[in-house]
Write a structure and sequence with these properties.
two-stranded antiparallel ribbon; 11 strands; single chain; D-Maltodextrin-Binding Protein, domain 2; seven-stranded mixed sheet; Arc Repressor Mutant, subunit A; 9 helices; about 40% helix; alpha/beta
């Protein structure tokens, strides 16, 4: 049995070309690395190096051994990743979404941790195909025999403004009416980021990554921000903010939850909940 560290050192010797350069990269003394290579030669039972007066280099045996060592370590890494992925999938559901809001409408899944990533449509569909995600949430119906897809809600974007703002007493307001104003924006809002930038090209958007700081800033700033009818449920309504619905059609999105058709039975609980909740919601 050859220890992994010996194979790693052999690969480094091949990459660096000399023992001294490899020792520097590995943060080892050259005598220590030399002893490791001598141990490898003993295990192989053949010479791996050509040794000259001032030169020690890998011979054909050594080059082949290093090539094989690289394949072995790559396969070992793949093995670790696959086993860990299987274990993680038994305890975790990876969900990719085009926007964060719809995830709040999904109830907790028994005995599983649900992890969410916000990505664009291309990445989500690719991730569902290659197994990165067990479920994805898109803003369009994804029709294919290989995929189960059901409605999972509608989300409406609002302006969040202080009471003294010029639109605070309005029943609704359009993107164009607010174009040019500066906004505080939460990070990772997915598809909504594209919408607000397209609809208000003259506005500036200041992204605050720290969520605690974001909440404090919104509550105490005169700058407008955004909220949706879903995420507003997570905010405490008080006199410091007024939520004004955005009147444009682009401010309303319909979402669909998708998984591989073969996995439908695994997530029957979620799909049954979604069917009951949103079956009549879409136009």
């Amino acid at each position: 049995m050859i220890d992994t560290y010996l194979l790693e050192q052999l690969i480094t010797v091949r990459e660096c070309g000399t023992l001294s350069a490899a020792a520097d990269k590995l943060h080892l003394t050259q005598p220590s690395l030399t002893r490791s290579m001598q141990k490898l030669e003993t295990l192989f039972g053949v010479k791996l190096f050509d040794r000259g007066k001032n030169r020690v280099v890998l011979n054909e045996n050594g080059l082949l051994a290093a090539e094989c060592a690289k394949r072995i370590l790559d396969e070992e890494q793949e093995m670790l990743l696959r086993v860990r992925s299987l274990d993680r999938s038994s305890r975790m559901i990876m969900v990719g979404a085009i926007a964060p809001g719809p995830m709040f409408e999904l109830s907790p899944y028994p005995a599983k941790t649900v992890s969410i990533e916000i990505r664009n449509e291309e990445e989500l569909i690719s991730g569902l195909s290659d197994g990165t995600y067990q479920m994805i949430i898109l803003n369009r119906e994804f029709k294919t025999p290989a995929v189960q897809c059901v409605p999972c809600g509608t989300e409406h974007l609002y302006f969040s403004v202080p009471p003294e703002h010029r639109i605070s007493e309005r029943n609704q307001c359009s993107f164009s009416e607010m174009n040019g104003e500066n906004f505080i924006v939460a990070p990772n809002i997915g598809y909504w980021d594209q919408i607000i930038r397209e609809q208000m090209p003259d506005s500036r958007f200041f992204i605050q990554d720290d969520m605690d700081a974001l909440s404090e800033l919104i509550q105490n700033s005169t700058m407008p921000a955004f909220v949706t009818d879903i995420t507003s449920k997570l905010h405490n309504r008080n006199e410091k903010r007024v939520f004004v619905p955005i009147s444009d059609e682009a401010a309303v999105e319909h979402f669909f939850c998708c998984c591989k058709a073969d996995d439908t039975s695994k997530y029957a609980r979620w799909f049954q909940t979604l069917d009951a909740r949103f079956d009549d919601q879409l136009p």
